[in-house]
Amino acid sequence: MLQSQDICQENYERFVQRVKRSGEVWGLQSAKGWAHCPSNDHEGRDVLLFWSDQAYAARHAKEEWSAYAPAGIPLDAFRARWLPGMHKDRVLVGPNWDAHLCGLEVDPLEVAQNLADT
Question: How far apart are CA 104 and CA 3, in angstroms?
Fold first, then answer.
């Protein structure tokens, strides 16, 4: 079942609030790199997935990502290095995607701006 746009937006807002509060972003990492998938909305682009909580990330370490484990990224590094690099590489952010891998695909510079807002 696909999530509504409103629920996806709520998940994104939860991501921003919790990451700002905790100072950490979570992804799934393996020897192959970080969990990502092709964009549903932008042909030829990839989406790197990130979550606001370790538990959210851990729920996705199954099936094709069973060899992946949650890995934390300090918010300062995420904002200073990851997001500009993703923008340069034309990779989108998948914040707090649900168990069915449904969620927003957000431009990294928009995420950086939202994480900088107080």
Answer: 10
Per-residue pLDDT at 101:
86
5-116 architecture in CATH? 3-Layer(aba) Sandwich (3.40)
pTM for this prediction:
0.92
- Please say whether the beta carbons of 69 and 61 come within 8 A: yes
Residue pointed to by tokens 């069973």: 66
Confidence of residue 1 (pLDDT cuts 50, 70, 90): very low
**What is the Cα–Cα distance from 21 to 38, expressed in whole angstroms?**
29
Domain ranges of the chain: 5-116
> Is residue 22 classed as helix, strand or coil in its secondary structure?
helix
- The candidate with the shortest Cα–Cα distance to 87, out of 50, 46, 52, is 46
